Structure formats: C-alpha cells, structure tokens
Amino acid sequence: MEKEKEFVPLPIIYNFLRKNEKQILSLFLATYCGMAFAQTNYKVTFTTDQTDITNVYLCSKEDGTVLDSATCQDGKASFDGKTNLPKIAAISIDQQAKKPVTLLILDDTPATIVQTSGSTDINGSPLNRKYSEIKEKARTYDNQMKKLQIEARDIAQSHNGNLPNADADRLQQAFDEAVQGQAESIRQALEENKDNLIPALLISVYGDRLEDQYVGNYLETYAYKDNGCLNEVNQYMAALKRKAIGSMFTDFTMDDMEGTPHKLSDYVGKGNYVLVEFLGQWCGPCRAEMPNVKKAYEQFHPKGFEIVGISFDAQKGAWEKGTKDLGITWPQMSDLKAWNCEAGKLYGIRGIPATILFGPDGKIVATDLRGEELQKKLEEIYQ
Q1: At 10, phi and psi to the nearest 5?
Q2: 101 and 13 belong to one structural domain
Q3: HSE (side-chain half, CA atoms, 13 Å) at 373
Q4: Structural domain boundaries, residue 299
Q5: Cβ burial, residue 347 (10 Å; 0-12/13-18/19+)
Q6: Cα–Cα–Cα angle for 260, 266, 268, rounded to 5 degrees
Q7: What is the DSSP string of 65-96?
Q8: Which of 142, 151, 93 is nearest to 119 (CA)?
Q9: Paired strand residues for 27
Q10: Interval 13-26: pLDDT, tens
Q11: pLDDT in tens, 248-264
Q12: Is there a single domain that holds both residue 90 and residue 155?
C-alpha cells in the first residue's frame, strides 16, 4: 500500500520561517554574495607580427581598470588571472585603452588573439568566434569603401584635381551601397544576439554608422544596455532627447573671450527666438555657412532674433582671430576643449556647423537649420 505523503500545515511553515528568519536571511545573503562576487579564471594569449610592441595591457572596457599586463617577447604575450566574468575587455598598448589592438569578450574559455598587418583574429568561446566573424564581415565593407576612396583620388589626380561627374556618381553609388550593406549586416547581428554581450561591443564600435533612432530603440530592450562599454552611447542617446523638438533647454555655463562666465539661460527663455550655433573657426563648412548666418542676423535681429555661438576651438588666439576675421558680432562662448566641448556633449553635437533654434519660452523649435532653411524658418516666424 502506497504511503500517504506527509502534509505540513501552512501555519507551521510560517511559524518556522518567523522563528528562524535571521538564520535563513544570513544563509541566503552568504550564498547570493558568493554567487554575485565569485571570480572566475581567464586566460588570453596574444600574438602579433608588429615588432615595436613591447608592453601590452588587458583592460576592462566597462570601467577602465587594468586587469593585467604582460611583456611582449618575440611577438607573444599571455594573460592569466581571475576577475568577474563575463566582461568586455581590450588588449591595448597603453593603460588607458585609448589605443586598443582589439576588443573581446573575456570569459572562462581561453582566448587566442592573432594580430597581423590589417587584421586581428579572435578564437576562443563561441561568443568571441561569432564576434570575430561579424567584425570580419564589417571589415570587408570598410575595405570596399577605402578602395573606392582611393579610386576617386586617383581619377581626380589624373583630371587636374577634378572628379568627372560620371565617375563621381558611380563611385558615390557604390560607396553608399557599401555603407548600407555594412549597416544592415550589423543590424542583423544585433537582432540575433540580444541575450549576450556582442551587441554592446558592436554598438560601441559601429554605433555611429547606424541610425540614432534604431540604436535608441534597440537599447531600450537590450539586456546589457547598462554595460559600462555603452556609457558614451547612453550619454549620447540622453543628449538626443535633450535636443528633441519641444524639449525645454538644458542650461550650461561657459566663458566668453574675456573669461567671463555666462549661462545659456542668460539668453534663452527670455522672450526671443535664439539660434545657438555650434562652430569652429578652423571648420571650412562653418566658414562657408557664415554669410547665411550673418544675413539672417542682420535681417531679423531688429525684430528680436538673437544668436549665441559655441566654439569648438582649442586655442584662444585662433578663436579670437577667427571671430574677428568672420565679422561675428553676437555673443560667443567656448571652453576651448574642441570636440570635447561640454555644451556639444550636452546636446549630442557630432558634426559642425550645427544649430538649435529655441523659442521665446526656451523650448526647442528646430535643429540643424542652414542656408535657405534657416532663412525660410525665420521668415515664417517673423512674417
């Protein structure tokens, strides 16, 4: 006869848990912390044909720490240690990983990296092999684009520096197809790897070759969207939201040429339309656009239109000379950090000239108005 299963009444279970809750909680925390902070062995072998590499570093791309270092002897170095895995790492010739030889997913499977002139192959875990294959496909498109650029240069040189229209159209079409092909291959890889670290690697390397809206939408549901490797990308996505039409201005403080600090709020949100122009005195397209901006200012400033310039210059002397040469009379500010301009980062500016038009209430009305588009918009406002 089958023995009846014992039944423990719920009140008895409840009383047991209440009586022993401290011991149970301590056991849970000890187990959880052991799992969360357990370190795992890693092993990476690096081989290169470059004779000038002497010291190499294994750096975390998630928080910038140096995990290990090694001397490269006869073109070979190895790393062997323990850390929290998996994580995105870089083999680099400097401790800040500003000159990475390659990126990889550091896990408990030994990895072998072979660098030769023009390529770097990664072998190891399935994820690293898959990432290497994706990167190789992307590199194929890069090579196509490079060949087209060289062909365009050679043809132009043989025509006194001018590229014939027929050749220009043909090469541009081929270049656009290569760009689109690469972007599509990266998007496909992203969609196929939503549950692992490969997309974090791909977006950190190729994110600027994809549409901003696509990257933003992808990151919203990506399991590793908060990975440190994506910090700059996430900051850029946040900046794009600050720059969206209808958004209220985000304030910042920056010095003018005399070193006097000014806030954006000194100009924006004061009842007038204000064009904030991001430019550099060294920037050819910025200088070419300046006559259009000056024309707009001269025509609409009497009606309340204002301009504030944010310079991406690095040298005060060059900034002052360029401003004088261009005849700029409206307020100018700069932190002299060039492409690291804090205001540029705040508003997601990746190319100049760039403009943001703020309304009388401080909300963004339009972005990237240039030439006839700027003139048309202002005529619409001040009709």
Answers
A1: -55, -40
A2: yes
A3: 10
A4: 253-381
A5: buried
A6: 140
A7: -EEEEEE-BTTEEEEEEEESSSEEEEEESSTT
A8: 142
A9: none
A10: 445 445 555 555 54
A11: 999 999 999 999 999 99
A12: no
